[in-house]
Backbone:
């Protein structure tokens, strides 16, 4: 190889190396910028909500009593979904699910005026049910009533009595072992058996059923809302912050505000004293 050729190869190698370093630096800078942009976007947006149904319930047996079986089918038909294309939960693979909608419900933090009854009660039993066409799941709750704040004619809503209420959503283990979920996007969580709640109840399906409009769990003197929850990542602390109306407010304060809201449903105060409207 001649001296000229050797020099040319060396020069070319240096040029290629330089270009490689420049290209590597550009890719690295772009990658870092992309990560910063993604992080900034993540910091601004609430994190995805957890599923409403966190407890998987076994599919119940078909009632042996003809009257009970007929009533269950009738209620299941009322919760059937007519949206095309129809998707049956029983056709999904293990772990599959359907999410209906995606918008958060628009109602005040204490929807006294929008509710037919407002009570404190303990969830004695919870059971998920498939709709008649297997296109949805609703969960029924048997509630032992401790206190009644409001009742506009709901039968059986008395202190010490029981009321049955439901909410769309649920997670079910089918008889063949598959687990399927049905979520109403934007709606909050489901109550848990054995826990105590303030429940806002509303007649649905032309008054034939009672649904949980919203609810607040009462535990160890504090309040945890079922609905209106967002989870936001705080880059300064690295923590995920849960935010919702009346989150972690003292139970005594919350019940005082609830009594005031029942007395004047058009003006609901928040713990800090501002009007919620």
Residues:
């Amino acid at each position: 190889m001649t001296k000229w050729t050797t020099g040319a190869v060396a020069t070319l190698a240096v040029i290629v190396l330089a270009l490689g370093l420049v290209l590597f630096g550009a890719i690295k800078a772009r990658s870092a910028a992309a990560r910063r942009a993604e992080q900034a976007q993540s910091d601004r947006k609430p994190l995805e909500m957890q599923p409403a149904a966190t407890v998987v319930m076994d599919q119940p047996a078909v009632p042996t009593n003809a009257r009970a079986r007929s009533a269950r089918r009738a209620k299941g038909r009322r919760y059937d979904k007519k949206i095309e294309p129809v998707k049956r939960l029983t056709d999904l693979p293990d772990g599959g699910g359907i999410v209906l909608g995606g918008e958060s419900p628009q109602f005040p933090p204490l929807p006294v005026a929008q509710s037919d009854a407002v009570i404190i009660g303990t969830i004695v039993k919870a059971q998920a049910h498939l709709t008649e066409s297997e296109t949805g799941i609703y969960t029924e709750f048997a509630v032992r009533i401790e206190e009644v704040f409001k009742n506009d004619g709901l039968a059986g809503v008395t202190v010490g009595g029981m009321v049955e209420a439901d909410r769309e959503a649920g997670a079910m283990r089918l008889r063949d072992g598959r687990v399927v979920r049905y979520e109403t996007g934007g709606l909050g969580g489901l109550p848990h058996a054995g826990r105590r709640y303030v429940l806002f109840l509303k007649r649905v399906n032309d008054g034939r059923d009672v649904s949980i409009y919203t609810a607040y769990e009462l535990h160890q003197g504090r309040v945890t809302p079922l609905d209106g929850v967002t989870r936001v990542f705080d880059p300064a602390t690295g923590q995920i912050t849960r935010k919702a109306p009346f989150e972690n407010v003292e139970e005594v304060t919350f019940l005082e505000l609830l009594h005031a809201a029942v007395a004047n449903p058009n003006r609901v105060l928040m713990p800090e004293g501002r009007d919620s409207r």
